[in-house]
Specification:
Number of domains: 1
Radius of gyration: 16 Å
Structural class: mainly beta
Number of strands: 9
Strand order of the largest sheet: 1-2-6-5
Order of helices and strands: EHEEEEEEEE
Length: 134
């Protein structure tokens, strides 16, 4: 699949779950890639556990069936990721992948994909007041 004009939407949602849900729903027929800064990070559900009868907590950010989510998550609730990249499933044939081997940082996502013969990169960066990522 060769696509010459990728439509990219970028937004700082300031940890607002409602806003990210609206963006994912309203952009599913418009955008190819959504770059989110400051995604919400909360308890999504509990997973079965042999130790905890209530289940182990699973933290994350919202997802949507039309989108593939790329996020750096080490499982920590204190060091949660501050960028999330969503790729529309209709362009999944371009083989998108998160490149933690290039940069492994909670404020930076590097996504690579193949468009015909070319290998391309998209970088999503959150710059805090301390410019940690820069």
């Amino acid at each position: 699949m060769i696509k010459h004009n990728l439509k990219i939407f970028s937004q700082n949602v300031r940890k607002n779950k409602t806003l990210i849900d609206i963006i994912l729903e309203t952009q599913k027929n418009n955008a190819d890639i959504i770059l989110i800064q400051e995604p919400p990070w909360a308890l999504l559900r509990r997973t079965p556990s042999h130790i905890n009868p209530e289940g182990d907590p699973y933290y994350g950010t919202p997802n949507h069936p039309e989108w593939s989510l790329f996020i750096q998550n080490d499982g920590s609730t204190e060091n949660y990721p501050r960028v999330a990249t969503y790729v529309n499933r209709r362009i999944s044939k371009m083989r998108f992948s998160l490149r933690k081997d290039l940069i492994n940082h909670r404020d930076i996502n590097i996504i690579d994909f193949h468009n015909g013969q070319n290998n391309n990169f998209i970088i999503n960066v959150y710059s805090d007041s301390n410019q940690t990522a820069l």
